[in-house]
Amino acid sequence: MTFRPFQYHAPATLDEACAHLAEHGPEARVLAGGTDLLISLKQDLWRPRHLVDIRGIPELRGVLPLPDGGLRLGAALTLAEVIAAPEVRAGYPLLAEAAGSVAAPTHQAMGTLGGNLLLDTRCWYYNRSRWQRLAVGGDCFKLDGTACHVAKGVRDCYATFTGDTAAALLVLGASARVTGPSGGRTVPLAGLYTGDGKAPFALRAAEILEAILLPPPPGHFHGAYRKFRLRQALDFPLAGLAVGAQFRAGTPICEEMRLACTGVDTAPRRLPEAEAVFAGREIEEPLVEGAAAIAMRAARPVRNMASTTRHRRAMLGHLCREGLRAVRAARARELAATGDGRLGTGDPQGEPAP
Questions:
Q1: Percentage helix, strand, coil, to 5, in the chain?
Q2: N or C: which end of the chain has fewer CB within 10 A?
Q3: Residue range(s) defining the domain that contains residue 233
Q4: Number of folded domains in the chain?
């Protein structure tokens, strides 16, 4: 479990970092926090000859307001910095909650926002040392082997995406700013992901994730992130769900619901069918159960991580219920604090019940 030899680069600018990646191609890897990369190098999953350390690049740091009232978060911000940022805690507490669920505080102090969003997909057969992989049948399809040990006879990779912050940022409507040798471009956050477990990210050659762009904080919005893992620290999500509800002013009516999952598929993704259950309605228990059932059907876990697929699917439904009840309770507390008499009437127009 030792590192293979590599050359270390510490560029001072984003252009210089992209130039290193362009020059060395697939033999180069980006180093940020290193909490996942360095372990993968010791497991001999990747064999780069060059590591490009981006932590000292000013363009990748900082929390900056945007002209439209939104927020720019540098991709090399540590998760601890994201959690502690007053602008995040005030305007986007859902992101702070999701970032705070990642691993343990020591990992959050080193791991970066960009690293969590570009966390390599994981599989019980893949994320092992080389001698352990040989013991279970050799290298798998994701590691240029000739077989998938999860689904025999297929040519697709079912390795699972397990980043926590992606689900929250999908719910918040975030975009990603990426930069490469040919310039920069902005894509919806979902555009970072291919859905292919073997090659999970849609970055072009020598591109670097520069920043996350958040729209202005919505009014009357409440969010929650819930996560299933074997231990309350350290572990990746075996299922994760972010909930975000936009409420009608002065009422408990949900104008728009957003739900996004992680840990149960090859990419994080929204759950539009479950979201549609709540349009123009209160978050009542029959609807909560209906949305949880839809989320369970939409999940695509496979037996490549701890826990069974049936259990992970059931847990996603449980997380959906918990998250929906949490945002409903938050809205109830908000309305109670304002003394609004229309709370909980059940009438879509917010009129007092007879």
A1: 35, 20, 45
A2: C
A3: 221-338
A4: 2
